[in-house]
Structure formats: structure tokens, C-alpha cells
């Protein structure tokens, strides 16, 4: 059996929608983007959504919109994709990493408070794998110290924190529609906020800093005149992406049901498997199951993560590692960061393996992957 780590879940409906978007002759940001923004805002339960070409663009513009710049510090997790930290650097600010909770793999609220200085401007919680951060605690801390919250919800398009959807809690939330994400438009992203001014600023900065409705300047009812208010960026979504996204949004509930089933099946088989630590979940929240990351327990198994991955690959199972911690990357090492200052992140990273998880997997494939994991583990028990 050959089971790739990741496969997008795209039907003929999406293909037809994309074709009709192309045939409509409106290729860039236009009516479909506005429709997708409206539907997405409704889905999240928030007043504003702005379509962008990536989550990275969203993280960058979110920070610019709240005024983060040189001299400022932004607190985030070291256990994330590098976009979270790179965009802090793009603003000229300094990333301040706080270690993760080894259970949830999300940044530890206790450590956030210790990391706050007079220069701290914002916190960027990352909802790892789609399991939400401790938002009540983080909101309390942010209120107390007058900090903004920008959520990296690249994994959390379906996540609920208690009764609230992710996207309706922080000042600004950034979603990713990258090829591997739970909802994809190939490349794409969305930011949500309940603050009209922040939404307007992000919209303006996403299109060269041009004045409102400049996207419509080539339409029949549009006008050629616009004014540039800021040296903005080219980060807008296109109608081809939005047409794709609208269809994916319609299917999201069904895709998420399947993800949850697969995660439950993995858990039921792997919980019998000694030496393998399973991902955390709790009935209090709704997990989006973007990733199913297991951890090899070095106390109980005498096999390295690398050897484990090689053995899985030999039996046809594709895997990945989420994430290479930010302080491990050469650029960040040169800036003076050191992974040894984040012992929990380091420990989790050294043993972690992400298993295939996407709606197209069959129960047989999931059982095959889980059996392969158990088999390797049982051969390497200490
Ligand atoms: C995928 C990802 C991003 C970046 O998303 P893009 O849409 O590719 O820019 C940011 N943060 C995390 C945690 C991610 O996994």
C-alpha cells in the first residue's frame, strides 16, 4: 500500500466553479471574493472577513494594522511554521518565544506573562493542529497589559474554543487556505475581525494602499480615479480562488466529520500501542484535526524519530514533521535564539511524527498506517 502524507480533497464541483469564474472574465479580486468574505464571516460568526493571497499576508497585515513596528516585541510560540515569526521580523519587530505546554503543544499562558516587557505589543497564539489555545487566559493577560491578540489560525478553520468559533475571539485572526490546509483554495488566506477600522486598514494595505473600492476600477460602474494612502502590498485574493473557496466552505462540515472519524480511528488503534504518545483532545473544545501528530517516547522506545520515519516510508506510509521549531532555523540562530531555551518544544520536536490525515483516507488505510506504527514500536521496546 502507498499512502501519501497529504492529498487535497477537491471534487468536480470546485473545478466547475473555477472554470466558471475564469469564464466570467473577472479574474482578480471582485464579486466572488466579496461573496466568499461574506460567507466566511457568517460561518465564523464575526462581522468582517478580508480575503488575501495567504495566511502569511494576513499575519503581516494584521500586525501592521495594529501598528507594530521597530522596537516592538511580539510574543508567540516557537513551535509553529516559520511564517508566524518571519512576519514579525517583516514589521521590524522582535519575536519573543515562550515555551509550549507539552500536552496541548500550544504556548503556555503561565510563560506569556513572564515574557511581557514594556515593549510588548501583541501576542500571536498558534492553535497547533487545530486544538485551541487557552483563549480565556490569553484574553485576560492581553486586557491586563493592553496587548493585542492576533491569532494564527492556519490549522483552526473549524476549531471552537468552548462555545466560540476561532476567528471571533482575538482582535484579528488569520486563516490559511494553502494546499494542505483543511479548507484550500490552492493558495489563499482570510483574516477576520469585529473591528471595522482594522478590517478597512487591512483591506487597503492588501491592495497597494489604494483607497476604498479601487479593486472595482475596471468594472462598468467603476471609476478610474483612486488615491494611494499608504505604500501598501499586493496581498489580495482573486475571484478564481474565491470561487474554489466557496465550494470548499460548503463541504467543510462533511470534510471535518471525516477528519474527526479518522482521528478517532487512529486513537482507538494506537492507544493500545506502548511507547507512542497520542495527540491531546478535550470535549470542552472542538478540534479541527488539521494534523494527527504522534510522539515517540524515548523512555520506552529505543528508536530515533528519523529511523521511525524511514521504516514507515519503507512500508509506503508518507509522514511529515510539524514543526521544525523556529529557534532551530539558521536565520533565527544567527539572531541569537537557541532551542535549548525552550525545553518542552525541543523534547516534543525530537520525537514527533505527523501521520496522514485527510478526508479521502479510507478506514483500511488508516488501520494500515496505525498497524505499521504499532508494529515498529513493538519491535523497538526498551
Ligand atoms: C500554513 C501555515 C501558515 C502559513 O499559511 P500560508 O497560507 O501558506 O501563508 C502560517 N502558520 C501556520 C501555523 C501554518 O501551518
Give a structural overview:
Belongs to the DegT/DnrJ/EryC1 family. The chain folds into 2 domains: 12-249, 3-Layer(aba) Sandwich (Aspartate Aminotransferase, domain 2); 253-378, Aspartate Aminotransferase, domain 1, CATH 3.90.1150. Helix content is 38%, strand content 13%. It has helices spanning 12-23, 31-44, 55-65, 82-90, 109-115, 135-145, 196-205, 239-270, 305-314, 330-334, 343-351, 363-379, and strands spanning 48-52, 73-76, 94-97, 120-124, 148-152, 160-161, 164-165, 172-176, 189-193, 276-277, 292-296, 352-355. α1 (12-23) runs antiparallel to α8 and α2 (31-44) runs parallel beside α8 (239-270). It is globular and about 70 Å long. The mean pLDDT is 96.
Averaging pLDDT over every residue, what do you get?
Answer: 96
Helix count equals 12
CATH topology of the largest domain: Aspartate Aminotransferase, domain 2
Count of DSSP E strands? Answer: 12
Helix content: 25-40%
Oligomer, anyone? single chain
* Domain count: 2
> What topology, given as strand order, has the largest sheet?
1-9-8-5-4-2-3
Secondary-structure element string: HHEHEHEHEHEEEEEHHEEHHHEH
Amino acid at each position: 500500500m502507498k499512502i501519501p502524507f497529504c492529498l487535497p480533497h477537491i471534487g468536480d464541483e470546485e473545478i466547475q466553479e473555477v472554470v466558471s469564474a475564469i469564464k466570467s472574465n473577472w479574474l482578480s479580486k471582485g464579486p466572488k471574493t466579496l461573496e466568499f468574505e461574506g460567507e466566511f464571516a457568517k460561518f465564523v460568526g464575526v462581522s468582517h472577513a478580508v480575503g488575501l493571497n495567504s495566511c502569511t499576508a494576513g499575519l503581516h497585515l494584521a500586525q501592521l494594522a495594529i501598528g507594530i513596528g521597530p522596537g516592538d516585541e511580539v510574543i508567540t510560540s516557537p513551535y509553529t511554521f516559520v511564517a508566524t515569526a518571519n512576519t514579525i521580523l517583516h514589521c521590524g519587530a522582535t519575536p519573543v518565544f515562550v515555551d509550549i505546554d507539552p500536552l496541548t503543544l500550544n504556548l503556555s499562558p503561565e510563560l506569556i506573562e513572564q515574557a511581557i516587557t514594556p515593549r510588548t505589543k501583541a501576542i500571536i497564539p498558534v492553535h497547533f493542529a487545530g486544538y485551541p489555545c487557552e483563549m480565556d487566559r490569553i484574553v485576560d493577560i492581553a486586557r491586563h497589559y493592553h496587548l493585542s491578540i492576533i491569532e494564527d489560525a492556519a490549522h483552526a478553520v473549524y476549531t471552537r474554543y468552548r462555545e466560540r468559533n476561532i476567528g471571533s475571539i482575538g482582535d484579528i485572526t488569520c486563516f490559511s487556505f494553502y494546499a494542505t490546509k483543511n479548507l484550500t483554495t490552492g493558495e489563499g488566506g482570510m483574516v477576520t475581525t469585529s473591528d471595522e477600522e482594522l478590517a478597512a486598514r487591512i483591506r487597503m494595505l492588501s491592495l497597494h494602499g489604494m483607497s476604498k473600492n479601487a479593486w472595482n476600477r475596471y468594472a462598468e460602474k467603476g471609476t478610474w480615479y483612486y488615491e494611494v494612502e499608504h505604500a501598501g502590498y499586493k496581498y489580495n485574493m482573486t475571484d478564481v480562488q474565491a470561487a474554489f473557496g466557496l465550494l470548499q466552505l460548503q463541504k467543510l462540515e462533511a470534510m471535518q466529520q471525516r477528519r474527526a472519524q479518522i482521528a478517532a480511528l487512529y486513537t482507538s488503534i494506537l492507544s493500545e500501542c506502548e511507547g507512542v504518545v497520542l495527540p491531546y483532545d478535550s470535549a470542552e473544545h472542538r478540534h479541527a484535526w488539521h494534523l494527527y501528530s504522534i510522539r515517540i517516547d524515548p523512555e520506552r522506545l529505543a528508536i530515533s524519530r528519523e529511523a521511525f520515519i524511514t521504516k514507515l516510508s519503507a512500508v509506503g506510509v508518507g509522514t511529515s514533521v510539524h514543526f521544525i521549531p523556529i529557534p532551530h532555523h539558521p536565520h533565527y540562530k544567527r539572531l541569537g535564539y537557541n532551542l535549548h531555551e525552550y525545553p518542552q518544544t525541543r523534547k516534543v520536536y525530537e520525537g514527533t511524527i505527523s501521520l496522514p490525515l485527510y478526508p479521502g483516507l479510507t478506514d483500511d488505510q488508516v488501520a494500515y498506517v496505525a498497524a505499521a506504527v504499532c508494529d515498529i514500536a513493538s519491535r523497538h521496546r526498551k
